[in-house]
Amino acid sequence: MSGETLNFPVRSQMQQSNTISGSTRLMVLSKQLHRLRADEGGAVSVMMGFLLIPLVGALGIGFEVSNWYMTARNMQNAADAAAIAAATNAGTNYDVEAKAVAANYGFINGTNNISVTASNTAVCPGGGNNCYSVTISGFMPLLLSQVVGYTGDATLNGAAAKQLSSSAVASNPNTPAQFCLLALGSPGIRSNGAPNANMACNVMSNTGSRCNGGNLGAPIGAAHGTNNGCGRTAYSNVAAVSDPYAGLASNIPADPCGSYPQKSSPLPASNQLSGSQSWSGNVIKCGDIQLTGNVTVNAPAGAVLVIENGQLDTNGYSITTANGSGLTVIFSGSNSGTYTHAPTGGGTLDITAPTSGPWSGVTIYQDPKLTAGVNISTAGSGPIWNITGLVYLPNATVTLSGAVNKSSNGQSCFALVVSSITVNGSGSILPNGGCVPAGLAMPTGTLPGRTTLVS
Description:
With 455 residues, this protein is α/β, with parallel strands linked by helices. It folds into 2 domains: 60-172, no CATH class; 176-452, no CATH class. The chain has helices at residues 13-38, 41-89, 94-104; strands at residues 115-122, 131-141, 154-156, 159-171, 174-178, 181-183, 189-192, 198-199, 203-205, 209-212, 220-223, 227-228, 233-235, 272-278, 281-286, 289-298, 303-308, 312-313, 318-321, 327-332, 343-344, 348-352, 362-366, 376-379, 384-400, 403-404, 414-423, 428-429, 444-448, 452-453. Helix 2 (41-89) runs antiparallel to helix 3. The longest helix has 49 residues, at 41-89. The relative contact order is 0.11.
């Protein structure tokens, strides 16, 4: 047995080593594959690759939409301001003003494809078609928004574009205003160093007005031309007020005196007045009238005193309408000769106008055809004016030096219509509050109200 050799199948060390090494590689490979399967880093890159195009498009459209919004907002601000400017101007060049304001916002009509249009016949939201509108429109070229397929709604130079437009409507409501002083001609209303003047009512000039040293104390001073300092609230470029009383001249009775009634001294008894006078209808006097004492006029139904080619000389006395009576004094006649067609003297006019009939509310009336002998240099003081009603002097240059008060038996109502007037420091007009019961339709015009956006 000791000589026998036993042979067993035994692996070599190298074979065992190779077997172990192969198993290890399989295990490592398996782990690496497992880690690769669990790694998501590459997925993000792949996803970003797929999403890059829509993401760029979204950013592009977002940028452009924001740009459109900002441009449209600026357009709207410009349109609002331009519409307000047009309505405030309210003149024949309203559109020029609107375009100038839009240009201040960078929107110049006819430049960079910008259009600015203005209208003074826009429909107002509350009715009517007298509002002012402004529309601003333009085009924006498309940039990155085309990536997502947006093709715009217009073309610009043959390329796709986005049209932007903004509109605004403004109203400038005219406010009715009554005037106790109306100057129809030139130079209109003037005052020089008149800080004590007190117009307790509105004044209006159909030309210009200039008040140096004070504003007349008028609540409102208005002028068709330029108003320099007249009125606590001053307006310029206001629509002229038409003469509302010129047509009353058709009610003046025919002149029975002839063309040139002669003056005489002393005056005939019929032209000298004193005491109580009972009048009705038309009372016609040829030539000058002079008071020789205080006069009280009884005219319950109203009376019209027509003075042909003459003055009313109060001569230091007063002429008064009795309680319940009304009187209109008319100056008529010819422009020839040296006649004075006005009240004179150092007395007092204490007159109440009739409250009905063709001369309702009219106290003194100069015939509009008279252009000579009509001026008054001491209105309100020579004689004193205590008057309820209208004093109509359409071609007269007047200097108001005294305080105009209501008549003793009348309402607080006074209106003065002249060609032009100078107001001295003592000139004043009482507050007006009783013109409706006094039978007077006051001179009325329109003042520009506050311009507002309505759409």
